[in-house]
Structure formats: structure tokens, C-alpha cells
Specification:
Layout lengths: L1 H8 L5 H5 L1 H8 L3 H7 L2 H12 L6 H23 L2 H47 L3 H11 L4 H13 L4 H11 L3 H16 L3 H25 L1 H24 L5 H5 L1 H25 L4
InterPro entries: T2SS_GspF_dom
Subcellular location: Cell membrane
Main location: membrane
Length: 288
């Protein structure tokens, strides 16, 4: 639904060319060798997710370090566990761990962005009441607000200065920050540009709606706190039991760690625990 909304907002005649202006400007700053490594499907995909996480890393360097970590960790794992299966799985575990960490960073950054977005609407409302044009309003937010919202509004201001259509510039803002609040802001601005009206008043009403949404979200989180605590306890119980058994009777766990059957059992248990954690997280996550 969010993706369809973004495509609807970004619908314009030459949208594909306009959307890539900042990307081309970024690639022009690289050396020819870096440009070849960065300008491909994998590089663009990883760059997009690094941007969502608020990381200013080059995609090819990130891939390079992931390969180095996997090459170093695989023989170390083989020496410690004496299991070829574990050492073969090291690259996959490395990539999977990095993916989850990147997603966590992106979610944390988006939460901070949404908290700052309400204040940004108030700044924009005051600037509009003073008489600033919309582009200068975006510049004011980029100068007066802290990161990450200042960075995002600064990118949108740069796109508008490059001549990008306002629909595409706002769609890019929503693409980098997939939030219902940003989509509502985009709709309000586009409707005002097409039909006219008091944008300052609209932003004030939107600010009140978003504040009410945050109040409801905090209430939902407080009601689901017990479920999250239960999930953490269930995840920690196996580790606590292993530590207690090892401290009381160390020899009891030797077959589990030294035999091939025990290593396979540990691997299957780890996969099941990860799947269970993801499943519980999805159940407890309530969208507001």
C-alpha cells in the first residue's frame, strides 16, 4: 500500500530522469574505478538501504568489508567448533546479521525522524505565515532542525533547486523515509499546489493529527509491554539453562558441543530460535 502510494505521488512525465539527479551528482564525485563498482544493481540497492539507515558508507566498500569479515571468521569458526558446516554458514550468518542490523538502524532512524517531523511542521507553519515560499521553507527546516530531518529536507531542497518536479521531490522524501506522516504531508502540499488554499492552516491540523497518533502509539506500546517482556524471557531461558548446567556439571554438555549430532542439533535450535523471535516480533508489532 505504501509503495503504491509513493508511485501515485511520483507519477509524472519525466520522473525517472529527475529522480536520479542526486544519484548522478553523487556518482560524479567518485573516481572512475569507484563509479564502476558503485553504479550497478547491487550497489544501488545497498546504497538505498544504507541511506535509509542514515549511514554515509559507500556500497562497494561495505561489500568488501563483509567479504573480509567472512573470510577471517570462517577459519576461526572451523578451529573453535571443528565443524565444516558452521564454517560454511559463516558468510550467510554475516550477511544476515548485517541485514538485521541495517534494518534496526533504519527503523531507529525513522522513529527519530517522525518525532522531529511534528516540530518541523510547526517550523514550516511559522515560516509560511511570515511569507516564505515553499522552497525557502524547506531550507529553513534543513538549517534549524537537527539530523536526520535536517539532512532529508536539505536533500529535498537541493532537488527542488536542481529543477525536479515537486511531486517527484516529495516522493523521493517519502521513499527515503517511508512514513504515513510524510505521505500525509505530501498529499497536503500537492493538493494545495494544484487547488490552492491555506497551507499553513493545513500543516497545523496535520501536526495535531500526528501528535494524536503518537499518543495512541505510546498507549499501544505500554499495553503490549508485557508481551515483549515475555518474548525476551523465552529467548533468554535456554541460554540461562545452559550456563547453569555447565557450572554445575560441565561434563554433562560435552556430547552436545563435541559430537557432530550435537553440532547439528545446536544449528537447528539456533535457526528455530531466530524464526521464533521474528514471528513473536511480527505478532507484537502493531501498526498505528
Amino acid at each position: 500500500m505504501l509503495k503504491n502510494k509513493l508511485e501515485l505521488i511520483a507519477e509524472t512525465g519525466n520522473g525517472q530522469n529527475q529522480q536520479s539527479l542526486l544519484r548522478k551528482h553523487y556518482l560524479d564525485k567518485l573516481t572512475p574505478t569507484e563509479r564502476k563498482l558503485e553504479n550497478n544493481a547491487v550497489g544501488e540497492y545497498l546504497s538505498e538501504h544504507l541511506t535509509l539507515a542514515g549511514l554515509e558508507w559507500k556500497a562497494y566498500k561495505t561489500i568488501f568489508w563483509l567479504i573480509i569479515i567472512s573470510i577471517v571468521a570462517a577459519p576461526i569458526t572451523l578451529v573453535l567448533t571443528k565443524s565444516i558446516i558452521f564454517s560454511i554458514l559463516v558468510p550467510f550468518i554475516t550477511v544476515l546479521s548485517f541485514t538485521f542490523w541495517l534494518k534496526y538502524k533504519a527503523e531507529k532512524r525513522l522513529c527519530l525522524f517522525e518525532e522531529q517531523f511534528v516540530e518541523a511542521l510547526d517550523v514550516m507553519k511559522r515560516a509560511l505565515l511570515v511569507g516564505y515560499p515553499f522552497t525557502e521553507v524547506m531550507k529553513t527546516v534543513s538549517q534549524e532542525m537537527p539530523a536526520p530531518i535536517s539532512v532529508e529536507f536539505g536533500k529535498t531542497f537541493s532537488e527542488l533547486n536542481y529543477g525536479v518536479d515537486i511531486k517527484v521531490a516529495l516522493a523521493n522524501l517519502a521513499q527515503r523515509n517511508p512514513s504515513i506522516s510524510v505521505l500525509a504531508f505530501n498529499s497536503a502540499v500537492i493538493i494545495q499546489k494544484e487547488t490552492g488554499g491555506n497551507l499553513a492552516e493545513t500543516l497545523e491540523n496535520l501536526s495535531e493529527v500526528i501528535r494524536g497518533r503518537f499518543r495512541l502509539l505510546r498507549k499501544v506500546r505500554s499495553l503490549s509491554a508485557e508481551g515483549r517482556m515475555s518474548a525476551w524471557i523465552l529467548m533468554c531461558v535456554p541460554f540461562v539453562l545452559v550456563i547453569m548446567i555447565y557450572l554445575s556439571t560441565p561434563d554433562y554438555l560435552d556430547p552436545l558441543f563435541e559430537s557432530d549430532r550435537g553440532a547439528n542439533l545446536l544449528m537447528i535450535t539456533g535457526v528455530c530460535m531466530i524464526l521464533g523471535m521474528i514471528w513473536i516480533r511480527k505478532i507484537l508489532r502493531i501498526e498505528v
